[in-house]
Amino acid sequence: MDTVNSFDSKGKKYMPVFPRATGKPTVYIEGYPSEDDEPLAATGFHGVQIRTFSDQLARYFSTEQSIYIGIDSFIYYYEGDRTKFVAPDIYVVLGAEKYPERRSFYTWAEGVMPTVVFEFLSDSTAAQDRGAKLSQYLVDIGVAEYFIHQPEGDKPPEFHGWRRSPSGEIEGIPPDAEGGLFSHSLNLWFRWEDYIGNVRLLRPYLPDGTPITTSEEEVRLRLEAQALAQAEADRRREAELTAQRAETRAQQEAERRQQVESELEQLRAQLAALEDEGS
Prior knowledge:
Layout: H1 6-14, H2 44-60, E1 67-71, E2 75-76, E3 85-86, E4 90-94, E5 105-106, H3 107-110, E6 116-120, H4 126-130, H5 132-141, E7 145-149, E8 159-164, E9 170-172, E10 181-183, E11 188-195, E12 199-205, H6 215-278
Parallel strand pairs: 2-5, 6-7
Antiparallel strand pairs: 1-4, 2-3, 4-6, 7-8, 8-9, 10-11, 11-12
């Protein structure tokens, strides 16, 4: 991990530039359901992945009031047809106000489409995530980038991304030598790593490779930094005390030498006086 000051110093440098939404934040529109019978996370792997990833994105974009992050909520993308909706695991909308929180996201009311969508594969959704949703997100809805990732460690790694080309065609996002994918929309790298509990965790990184930490990791890093700073302060204080003790000993030794020399001088004077009296 980088230092705790990484995001304070680099956030503005790497933050994406985007236009503001033309609509306004809309909490709820009557007649468009905002709930279903599905659980928030399909598996425990998804729960860890969604919780961690959304926390990282939320922490990084916390200073930007016009970036909305949705978590497993409905996106309605065609006014008047409540069957035209999707519910991605995580989606990011550049230009939409962060607050208030919404029950669902209504593209026509907000005046902006989701920018990037993330789906984490499960047995029940993997086929759709790899197939039908590709066209639905990038063509029907107009999402700029779409990523899928397999968080279950026992299954083969699977991390892919797509985007719309300038001509409107769907094209794969090429990986780098380590398999990482770069999002031009968010100006972030995404890479996966093995995590505790057999979870394959997708994580975001700044363009220079600095990892974006979670809130929990940030607290730990701050505590570690404070402990190091305290240890350094203690070391300097001990060095100062050692120097002070050495200086005190040197001063006391000098005073003792001066006293001895003074006493010797007095004895010499006495001896000289006695010699003068005897001569």
